[in-house]
Amino acid sequence: xxxxxxxxxxxxxxxxxxxxxxxxxxxxxxxxxxxxxxxxxxxxxxxxxxxxxxxxxxxxxxxxxxxxxxxxxxxxxxxxxxxxxxxxxxxxxxxxxxxxxxxxxxxxxxxxxxxxxxxxxxxxxxxxxxxxxxxxxxxxxxxxxxxxxxxxxxxxxxxxxxxxxxxxxxxxxxxxxxxxxxxxxxxxxxxxxxxxxxxxxxxxxxxxxxxxxxxxxxxxxxxxxxxxxxxxxxxxxxxxxxxxxxxxxxxxxxxxxxxxxxxxxxxxxxxxxxxxxxxxxxxxxxxxxxxxxxxxxxxxxxxxxxxxxxxxxxxxxxxxxxxxxxxxxxxxxxxxxxxxxxxxxxxxxxxxxxxxxxxxxxxxxxxxxxxxxxxxxxxxxxxxxxxxxxxxxxxxxxxxxxxxxxxxxxxxxxxxxxxxxxxxxxxxxxxxxxxxxxxxxxxxxxxxxxxxxxxxxxxxxxxxxxxxxxxxxxxxxxxxxxxxxxxxxxxxxxxxxxxxxxxxxxxxxxxxxxxxxxxxxxxxxxxxxxxxxxxxxxxxxxxxxxxxxxxxxxxxxxxxxxxxxxxxxxxxxxxxxxxxxxxxxxxxxxxxxxxxxxxxxxxxxxxxxxxxxxxxxxxxxxxxxxxxxxxxxxxxxxxxxxxxxxxxxxxxxxxxxxxxxxxxxxxxxxxxxxxxxxxxxxxxxxxxxxxxxxxxxx
Length: 698
Fold this sequence. Notes:
Layout: H1 2-14, E1 26-28, E2 38-43, E3 49-54, H2 57-60, E4 64-69, E5 72-74, E6 76-79, E7 83-86, H3 92-105, H4 111-114, H5 122-143, H6 152-161, H7 165-181, E8 191-194, H8 196-204, E9 213-219, H9 230-242, E10 272-275, E11 279-282, H10 291-294, H11 308-321, E12 331-335, E13 338-344, H12 354-357, H13 372-390, E14 394-402, E15 408-417, H14 418-432, E16 441-443, E17 454-456, H15 467-472, E18 473-475, E19 481-484, H16 490-498, H17 502-515, H18 517-528, H19 541-551, H20 556-559, H21 563-584, H22 600-605, H23 607-626, H24 635-653, H25 663-674
Parallel strand pairs: 2-9, 7-8
Antiparallel strand pairs: 1-4, 2-3, 4-5, 6-9, 10-11, 12-13, 13-14, 14-15, 16-17, 18-19
């Protein structure tokens, strides 16, 4: 991680960007949401609770708290809900709904909460005693000499000094209760429910997870700005940075660190950085206390000396690049506990959504029109313009993943020129379009005075970072998702985009056909029956097949003439004839499975045997179609599908069939089944049930 951040710091220096140098003990607040609010507690000058209110997420993201040790901080700190109630398993949701209903009516009795047998806030009071005592004393001693008379922080320290913890609990509980009753704050701030077994675990295990949320102390008698304001937090950072609480060791003037800077403090512990999504990040996790890292008698500064100046630069660089203001441009959320960083070697004045182009995002949601095709074209055009004016066209990409509570690791790094990125993006789009026109449909969007109706699905290119979500999903043949595995990671999509690896592509295709087989079977069966398949992401899944086939060297111009694709096409024609037979002879009563789609699985294991079974099963329907029986006005349509049947059969007759289908051939079978038929020969039967017209093209 050090090397990647040094490169970023050098890029920032060239751009003249000076990042905010936050004191290492000033940590960001936990992420704020409706379920996890941050509560501002207004204090009077004598330390009493005046009122409480919720802090908006945008403001909370700009605030910080002084945290010398875990669990001890000011002015922000974490507290538990006021009460914990034990209830039998399965009753919790019901009880919460009943309580919320009583609160709205003003008929709720708080007595059971205020007379709980165990004192659930005991540990919270112990933490508050330390925060209001030793943490406040330390912070005031650091800032006190430079504080101006009457400024907000000086008044704040005096108010906190006057707090009585027991009285604070009582006044805080009263204020929270009042806000909960009026519906301004969630009920979870007051109490939560646990089973008896869970209660025993929480009481016996100090590491058991207990609900907590953030509060932020403020004073009503502030000067210019309250404590919960970016200006006041910046002032606190200035006071902490100006205080020289450690004397750096004197080093040899000729001794330099790994980057040619002063090696002072190379033996010290690296500073930590708190990011809004990953939480605490240690810039270097090597430690002599770990046997595996000291076995060669070289560890920490002995292997790679990094001085105080370099440490300061990389800390500031990481905080700058991961600032919420640059969400979607220089960084974005790639997956569970993983952030993607991407930026040009020459930083632009205006934001370019580079990270968002790859599919990484955080708080910024994607608009409907923001597809990979449009975003990549826009971003690359802007980067070309930047390169024209600066002469540099390289892009730095790296990804950080939280491996566990203590370790954060660089799991991907890539430096790429703009020309190669442009080529890779175009190849990605071409790959996702490496499929025939499909006859897949979905429901239209709901509009006023218009009922949803089936509409053709237009295929879209998936964002590279989002590819792993589809690759890891396991589907059942009924169209329901059975769960997810962790086979692929977000950066595997980047590797597929930017690198050429036949082994990786082969493994991806094999895994996708194994995990996604149920999805495509259900999609084919619904399509063959003229129904709208209930699965989601129908715009994306077929395109992934096309992409993996493209990366395998299979182009649609050629694989559409191969036996695997034609076998899938033949199954679809069989289902169309079978469905017409049921509409006419059986009065639209369709069996659970049509003859063609029922053999999709068997076709992949033994094509010849599956075709033999198909010929036997479809014989009555083909005989009916060729006969002169009354077809209730569908003679031309029946003739059309018989012509398709004969044409595909003639092609299959001269081709060599594989004994067992490989992953790429299995993909071709599904695409062959879902492919639409020539529009110029299209014949559509009356559609009275909202089902798909026969032979409809995209």
